[in-house]
Hints:
Blueprint: E1 2-10, H1 14-25, E2 30-34, E3 47-49, H2 53-59, E4 69-77, E5 83-94, H3 97-110, E6 114-117, E7 120-126, E8 129-134, E9 139-147, H4 154-158, E10 170-179, E11 185-191, E12 194-200, E13 206-213, H5 214-217, H6 223-229, H7 235-242, E14 244-246, E15 252-257, E16 265-266, E17 269-271, H8 286-305, H9 312-341, H10 344-356, H11 360-368
Parallel strand pairs: 1-2, 1-9, 2-6, 4-11, 9-17
Antiparallel strand pairs: 3-5, 4-5, 7-8, 8-9, 10-13, 10-14, 10-15, 11-12, 12-13, 16-17
Amino acid sequence: METTVDVLIIGGGLAGLTSAIHLSKSGLKVSLIEKNEFPKHKVCGEYISNEVLPYFQWLGVNISELNPSTISKIQFSISSGKTINHTLPLGGFGISRYALDHYLYQKALANGCQIIHGTVDNIRFEDNEFTIFTNNNLEFKSKIVLGAFGKRSNLDLKLNRDFIQKNAPWLAVKAHYSGHFPDDLVGLHNFEGGYCGVSKVENNIINICYLVDYKTFKEYKNIEEFQSKVIYKSPHLKAIFENCVMIFDKPLTISQISFEKKEAVENHILMIGDTAGLIHPLCGNGMAMAIHSAKIASELIQSFLNNTINSRKELEDKYTQEWNVNFKSRLKTGRFLSKILQKEKLTTFLMQLIAIFPFLLPLIIKKTHGKPIILKT
C-alpha cells in the first residue's frame, strides 16, 4: 500500500514527535514511523532547560500537566568529593521520557499526525522525491524525510554515515529510584572513567543516569560490582545510591554511544536530535537541543513547501547553517569538557580554577545551554 505525505519522520523520540506536532499543527500531512510502542522508558538524563518553554507554549504543550520537578541549582563534584554549587541561569525541569514522550505522542495524534509502529527497511531518493519502505510492507512517497532515529541505528549503516564506522566506547546506565534528594537540584558527579547525573523527575522520582567508557566497565562482572567498586569511590554518589531504592526491576543500558561529529543532512534527509549530533550528558542539555532542532527543521520545511525557499539545496544549506549556529559550539564544548573529566589531574585543576574564579562556572553552563527558543514571526 502506497501513501503520499508532505513529510515523513523516521523516529518517535523527542525530536521526531516535536516536529510531528509542529508540522501537523501547521496543516501539513505528516506520517511518523517508530519501532517502539508508547509509553517506554529510555536511557536519558531527563533534565530540560527552560529555554524550550516559549516553544512548548506555541505548540500547545503544557508541561505542568505532567507534574515535573522544578530545577534551579547545579552541584558538580569530582571523585574525591570536592564540590562546587551554583544556580542555573535559566533553570529547568525534570521529566521522564516515559511521561514526556507519551504525552507528545498523544498530542501528535490529536493534531492528525499518522503514527505507524514499525521500522524503515529502505529509503530511495529519485526525481526529487523520497520513497520509503517499511518492514510491514508499507510504502510512502514524500517530498521531505526527517531523520529522528536516535543515537545509533541500522539506518546509519545503510546511509553509510561516517561516525558509524568509528569505535564508540561509551556505555550509559539509567534507572529510577525512590529516596531523598533535593527537588530543585541537578547533580553532576565525576568518577573514574565517567560521570553521573542525578535529579528528580515527576512524582518525586529520582533519575540516576551515568556514562562510562567501556574499557573501565568491562573490568567488572556486572553493573552492581562496577557501582560498588568504582562509583562508590565518589562520596556523593555512594551516599545517593545507599539511600535510594531502585524502582526498576533492573537498570536500562545502552552501548556504543558515539560523540563523533555527524552531518546535519545525509542523502537529502534532514537529521534532527541525536541523529544529527549528540552532546555529552555532563552538559545536561541534550533534550532541549533535540526539541530546538525539530523547531528549526520544521520552520525551514514550511518555507520550502510554500516555495519561500526555492530549492532543496537551499533548504539543506539553510538547515546545516542553522544547526551550526545553534549547536556546533555547544557540541564542541561538550567534547572538550568530557576529555578534561577523563583525566583526573586536569579535572582537579579545573575545579581549583573555578574555586578561585567562581564566575567561570556560569560561563561554562552558558556555553552548553541556549537562549529561550522564540518562534520566528
